Amino acid sequence: MFGRYNKVQQAVLETTLRLIIDKELQATSMSLIAKESKVSTGNIYHYFSSKEDIINELYKAIVQFNGEYVTKNWHEGDGVKERFERAWTNFIKLSLAYPQGFQFIEQYSFSPYIYEQSKLDAYETGWCAPMEALYEEAIGQKMFVELEPRLMVQMSYGSLVYAVKAHLQNRVELDEPHAKQIVAACWNSFAKA
User: Fold this and answer.
1) pLDDT tens digits, residue range 166-193?
2) Is the dihedral of CA 62, 51, 104, 149 positive or negative?
3) pLDDT of 145
4) Whole-model pTM?
5) Fewest CB within 10 angstroms: 59, 99, 170, 179, which?
């Protein structure tokens, strides 16, 4: 998830993610990040100007990773439904494979700790903008009812998020057949009859 960063930055980002998920943001101090990452406070400040800077870099890194993961093996020549199914199936796989990243995004996407510019950049560099374009394409091909594509993406996302959360809390099984059913239900919720 943090492969594009140097070892010091990786250690800080990985440690911060773990601490925030385990202890919450307010309990995660710079001194605790330094202690747990085994990176000196001075070295942390060489790369990050503040805890908020770390949180925003963490947010951007996870969003970029998620965007690449969700849209992997996604080719423009593939049909709309195929790309839809692949993207949302990838989203489920990603969320289960990287639960800390999933929890961080869910908990902090609308947090005041995340700068507005980071949120705007995330929309464009993550998977939201490509998915919005896919929904627009489905509407243009008369496959989906006409609604605001951005809203449609968020509606599908919300359904999938609750399924993943239920799975992570051991309330439902989210194996491949169930994942396919949920993705199909998302498609059917907008498909023209």
Assistant:
1) 999 999 999 999 999 999 999 999 999 7
2) negative
3) 97
4) 0.92
5) 170
* 78: its two tokens: 């593939």
Please state, in angstroms and rounded to a whole number, the distance separating the CA atoms of residues 44 and 151: 39
Structure confidence at residue 193 (pLDDT): 79
Please say if the pLDDT value at position 58 is more than 80: yes
Residue 77 and residue 157 in one domain: yes
The residue range of the domain holding 5 is 1-48
CA–centroid distance for 184 within its chain: 20
Q: Give the CATH number of the domain where residue 186 resides.
A: 1.10.357.10
Distance CA 70, CA 65 (A): 9
- Which residue(s) pair with 191 in the sheet? 144
Structure-block tokens of residue 179: 């994942």
126 with 160: CB under 8 angstroms? no
Residue 30 lies in a domain: yes
Percent of the chain with pLDDT over 90: 85
